[in-house]
Amino acid sequence: QVQLVESGGGLVQPGGSLRLSCAASGRAFSSRSMAWFRQAPGKEREFVAGIIWSGSNTLAADSVKGRFTISRDNAKNTAYLQMNSLKPEDTAVYYCAADRGGLRTGISRSDYEYTYWGQGTQVTVSS
Predict the structure, then answer these.
(1) What DSSP line would sit under 4-46, residue for residue?
(2) What are phi and psi of 31, to 5 degrees?
(3) pLDDT digit string (tens) for 35-86?
(4) Strand partners, 48
């Protein structure tokens, strides 16, 4: 079993920054791809960014490219999402997700490819 706990959300003004963390417990974190998704009120959950097990390959949604950066520290069993130049439309609950492992080199944008999910952390961008 894998448990994921997000932290770092909060209220920030437009143009500000936040860093989300996803702490993982359980087995084989370093063999799993990780991803961040978000869900705004009344909208479907959407892919934000993903990173493979080694950290050598990442993928970001067009809506956040150049503003958000995903990273990981396998020694700490933690994934991160650095969010800069935040906009009101970034307001959502942000979820961390992990796949089933296996050292995969591709990154999926589909939530059904991810087996484990955190409870989510709220990010609100407002003046």
Answers:
(1) EEEE--EEE-TT--EEEEEEEEES-GGGS-EEEEEE-TTS--E
(2) -105, 0
(3) 999 999 999 999 999 999 999 999 999 999 999 999 999 999 999 999 999 9
(4) none
